[in-house]
Amino acid sequence: MNPETLKLIAMGATIAVGAIAPGIAMGMIGSKSVEAIGRNPETENAVRTAMVLGLAFVESLAIFSLVVALIIRFV
Questions:
Q1: What domains appear along the chain, each with residue ranges and CATH number?
Q2: What is the DSSP letter of 60?
Q3: Cα separation of 25 and 55, whole Å?
Q4: Are 37 and 51 in contact (CB under 8 A)?
Q5: Over its length of 75 residues, how does the chain's per-residue pLDDT go in tens digits?
Q6: Which among 69, 63, 74 has a CA at the least distance from the CA of 11?
Q7: Cα 15 → chain centroid
Q8: Would you list the DSSP string of 6-57?
Q9: From CA 68, how far away is CA 38, in angstroms rounded?
Q10: What is residue 1's predicted lDDT score, i.e. its pLDDT?
C-alpha cells in the first residue's frame, strides 16, 4: 500500500470513531435528561442547562476528530 492510501484509511477511521462515539454519548445524555425531567419536572431548567452544556462538550469531540482527520489528510 502506498502512503496516500494509508492516509485515507486513517482519515476514515478517525472520522468513523469520532462520529460514532459522540453520537452514542449524545443519545445517552438526551435519554437520561428526559428521564430526569420525567421524574422531577420542577428541575427542568437546571437539567436542560446541564444537558446543553454536556452536548456542547460532546460535539466538540466530534469537531476535534474532524480536525485531526484533516491534519492527517493534508500533512
A1: 3-74 (1.20.20.10)
A2: H
A3: 8
A4: no
A5: 899 999 999 999 999 999 999 999 999 999 999 999 999 999 999 999 999 999 999 999 999 999 999 999 998
A6: 69
A7: 11
A8: HHHHHHHHHHHHHHHHHHHHHHHHHHHHHHHHHH-GGGHHHHHHHHHHHHHH
A9: 38
A10: 85
Q: Do residues 65 and 47 touch, judged by C-beta distance below 8 A?
A: no
Q: Cα–Cα distance between 10 and 16 in angstroms, integer?
A: 10
pTM (two decimals): 0.81
Residues near 8 by beta carbon (within 8 Å), at least 6 away in sequence = 73
Query: Which residue's entry shows cell 502506498?
Result: 2
pLDDT number for residue 75: 87
Distances (CA, A) of 27 to 10, 32, 55: 26, 9, 10
Tell me the residue type at 9.
Answer: I
